[in-house]
């Protein structure tokens, strides 16, 4: 069962007071390069710097008062750790965040700055899940998964709703694919808001589990994920995959060199900071020029939380 139109729009109305309606930017030069019309939905300008704020807000707002009193818990080393911390702070809820010991200090500092209570664990998924389970048992906190949670998925889709309200004549929206929350939410938005807009996914060859999952019809995993797009090293889940399988016709895979080139183009030509995961969508469009030629294409810039000491160009 995929979420209904009513659920999709309820999430949109619910999160609006808590998030930025981020700008949509265009670039004549990138349009010429891609031979299409591109509309960049800039979630790098979202609170805490990424689209994940939307899903975190929606998930917390759907909790009962008793659940809110006990707080929320997640495990994440990246943007969702920051998103849940800030969303919880703004709503007046405690956020317990399990982070691997080897997570960058800059990310730990950001989580602390947003009021998140950090528990460090070993970097394996098993260790992270065990720590989150322990916190749930000790505190009664509600676990919120970064991407495989229906309320998170609905929240993430609100960026695409804003984009389609501004540009209702889009033929495609291209999003990066990591855990699957953004693409599933975006696909729901397009499904209910537009008669002609399809959502296409993009991911690195080095972490192409979603592409393989669409081919096989079941959730595939990555044995390794040696990609610069660190936000896309996660796997799909049983809540978002059925939506993706039903509503997403294609996922385009890109090489690491293509990701870096697209990231550099956005920095140089649009003068905005985007993280490597965000550049995957433009890389896919440039790779498949004939497919997108002369179409109107929305691009979700998923985030801008980049390590400035570690730029790939």
TrEMBL record:
<dbReference type="InterPro" id="IPR001926">
    <property type="entry name" value="TrpB-like_PALP"/>
</dbReference>
<dbReference type="GO" id="GO:0000287">
    <property type="term" value="F:magnesium ion binding"/>
</dbReference>
<dbReference type="GO" id="GO:0018114">
    <property type="term" value="F:threonine racemase activity"/>
</dbReference>
<comment type="similarity">
    <text>Belongs to the serine/threonine dehydratase family.</text>
</comment>
<dbReference type="GO" id="GO:0003941">
    <property type="term" value="F:L-serine ammonia-lyase activity"/>
</dbReference>
<dbReference type="GO" id="GO:0070179">
    <property type="term" value="P:D-serine biosynthetic process"/>
</dbReference>
<dbReference type="InterPro" id="IPR036052">
    <property type="entry name" value="TrpB-like_PALP_sf"/>
</dbReference>
<dbReference type="GO" id="GO:0030170">
    <property type="term" value="F:pyridoxal phosphate binding"/>
</dbReference>
<keyword id="KW-0456">Lyase</keyword>
<dbReference type="GO" id="GO:0005524">
    <property type="term" value="F:ATP binding"/>
</dbReference>
<dbReference type="Pfam" id="PF00291">
    <property type="entry name" value="PALP"/>
</dbReference>
<feature type="domain" description="Tryptophan synthase beta chain-like PALP">
    <location>
        <begin position="16"/>
        <end position="303"/>
    </location>
</feature>
<protein>
    <submittedName>
        <fullName>Serine dehydratase</fullName>
    </submittedName>
</protein>
<keyword id="KW-0663">Pyridoxal phosphate</keyword>
<dbReference type="GO" id="GO:0030378">
    <property type="term" value="F:serine racemase activity"/>
</dbReference>
């Amino acid at each position: 069962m995929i979420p209904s139109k009513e659920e999709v729009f309820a999430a949109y109305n619910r999160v609006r007071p808590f998030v930025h309606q981020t700008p949509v930017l265009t670039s004549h030069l990138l349009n010429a390069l891609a031979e299409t019309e591109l509309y960049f939905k800039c979630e790098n300008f979202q609170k805490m710097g990424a689209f994940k704020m939307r899903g975190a807000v929606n998930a917390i707002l759907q909790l009962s008062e008793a659940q809110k009193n006990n707080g929320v818990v997640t495990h994440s080393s990246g943007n969702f750790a920051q998103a849940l911390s800030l969303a919880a702070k703004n709503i007046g809820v405690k956020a317990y965040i399990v982070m691997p010991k080897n997570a960058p200090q800059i990310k730990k500092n950001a989580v602390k700055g947003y009021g998140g209570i950090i528990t460090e664990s070993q970097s394996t998924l098993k260790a992270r899940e065990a720590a989150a389970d322990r916190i749930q048992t000790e505190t009664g906190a509600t676990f919120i998964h970064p991407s495989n949670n229906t309320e998170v998925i609905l929240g993430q889709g609100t960026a695409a709703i804003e984009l389609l309200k501004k540009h209702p004549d889009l033929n495609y929206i291209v999003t990066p694919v990591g855990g699957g929350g953004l693409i599933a939410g975006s696909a729901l938005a397009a499904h209910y808001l537009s008669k002609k807009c399809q959502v296409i996914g993009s991911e690195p060859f080095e972490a192409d589990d979603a592409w393989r999952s669409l081919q096989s019809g079941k959730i595939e995993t990555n044995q390794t994920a040696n990609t610069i797009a660190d936000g896309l090293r996660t796997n799909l889940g049983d809540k978002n995959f059925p939506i993706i399988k039903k509503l997403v016709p294609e996922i385009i895979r890109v090489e690491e060199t293509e990701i870096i080139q697209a990231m550099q183009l956005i920095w140089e030509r649009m003068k905005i900071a985007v993280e490597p995961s965000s550049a995957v969508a433009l890389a896919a469009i440039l790779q498949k020029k004939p497919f997108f030629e002369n179409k109107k294409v929305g691009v979700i810039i998923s985030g801008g939380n980049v390590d400035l000491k570690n730029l790939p160009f």
